[in-house]
Design goal:
alpha/beta, two-stranded antiparallel ribbon, 349 residues, TIM Barrel, globular
């Protein structure tokens, strides 16, 4: 079981951007010190009340410079908003600067507003994602390459540097819409699942489709599944339940607003489930949230829930979102991180 922390370098009211960076890097340092397997970096744009993490590859290089062991993942690089050659060069450079510790997580993002602000149609996001990923893989694995696609055309391109890892850094893909699961399985890459509301059991059919497609395509193994999940730990059950209350409920309110905004914009499709997700969370109570797709409790309770998830979903690791909503105090996030690293992780290794 791989244990990672999902981090979006949250911006808290009344704090400067410098303070947001300083606290986030203190948490990175603690994760390195306490043996966490991976630090996962978000990519979020144009939302200064939420996050200062708009440049994950830059932050990944900074994390690499201050650490020696921890893997550094991107969760996720929004590929349709990237120029494929530029992102291939920059990610390969980061792989060298981190000593081959980069994990290249990629996805499309579920925020059409960001696409509009970048001048890219969200309706094009799926096709653009596939083209950019194809080009990055070619750029990393071939001495030189040519490509002819709908959005990009290149002839006899050679990038430098090539990644330090051979043939290139591990790639993981975020799976959200139902058709993504078998598509990624056919491609033979690991998947992220973003757990937030509903029941964990809802993922079982999609994971089965992913692994069936993975096996049918002839790939080795069964296909790896990683769960990004709101997580919080404290020494007592009461503290574990009460300390993240404000932040988690803030998150669900903000998530509902983003879903409403997404539904009002061109290029979003009903089949992606936004309307259904909105109905679920508009009147969500805190007790219902705790009974859903979260890992909240004492180390023993979180350990037990993780073991059940291993058995039921066959997950290979988690990206623990220890400050879901971004309002949990720094010292409490540090405590939750320590408990995850020192009391839960050793039981799975």
């Amino acid at each position: 079981m791989e244990f990672g922390m999902f981090h979006q370098f949250p911006a808290l009211p009344g704090r400067s951007e410098k303070e947001a960076f300083d606290e986030a890097f203190e948490q990175v340092d603690a994760a390195e010190r306490w043996g966490l397997d991976a630090m996962w970096l978000a990519e979020l744009h144009f939302d200064p009340q939420r996050s200062v993490l708009s440049a994950p590859l830059s932050i990944a290089a900074a994390v690499g410079a201050r650490t020696e062991r921890i893997r550094i993942g991107i969760a996720v690089q929004v590929l349709p908003l990237c120029h494929p050659l530029r992102v291939a060069e920059e990610a390969a450079t980061v792989d060298h600067l981190t000593g081959g510790r980069l994990i290249f997580g990629v996805g499309r993002s579920g925020l059409p507003r960001t696409y509009e602000d970048y001048g890219v149609s969200y309706a094009e996001s799926r096709d653009r994602f596939i083209e950019v990923l194809d080009i990055v893989e070619l750029a990393w694995s071939q001495p030189n390459f040519s490509y002819e696609g709908k959005y990009y055309s290149f002839k006899n391109i050679t990038i430098a540097p090539k990644p330090l890892q051979t043939p290139y850094p591990p790639i993981r893909i975020a799976a959200a819409s139902p058709d993504t699961y078998p598509a990624v399985g056919e491609r033979g890459l690991p998947i992220f699942i973003n757990a937030r509301y509903g029941s964990f059991a809802e993922f079982i059919p999609e994971i089965e489709k992913y692994r069936e497609a993975y096996a049918a395509a002839g790939h080795e193994g069964r296909g790896q599944v990683y769960l990004r999940v709101p997580t919080y730990l404290a020494e007592t059950e009461q503290r574990a339940r009460e300390e993240p209350r404000e932040s988690l409920m803030h998150f669900y309110r903000e998530q509902a607003q983003r879903l409403r905004d997404s539904l009002s914009r061109a290029g979003t499709r009903a089949i992606e489930g936004r309307a259904q997700r909105l109905r679920r969370i508009e009147n969500l109570s805190y007790e219902e949230a705790l009974d859903g797709q979260v890992l909240v409790g004492t180390p023993d309770q979180v350990t037990d829930r993780l073991r059940r998830l291993q058995e039921e979903l066959g997950i290979d690791g988690i990206l623990a979102e220890l400050n879901c909503g971004g309002l949990i105090a720094h010292r409490q996030v540090i405590t939750a991180l320590r408990l995850l690293c020192q009391e839960v992780r050793p039981r799975f290794h």
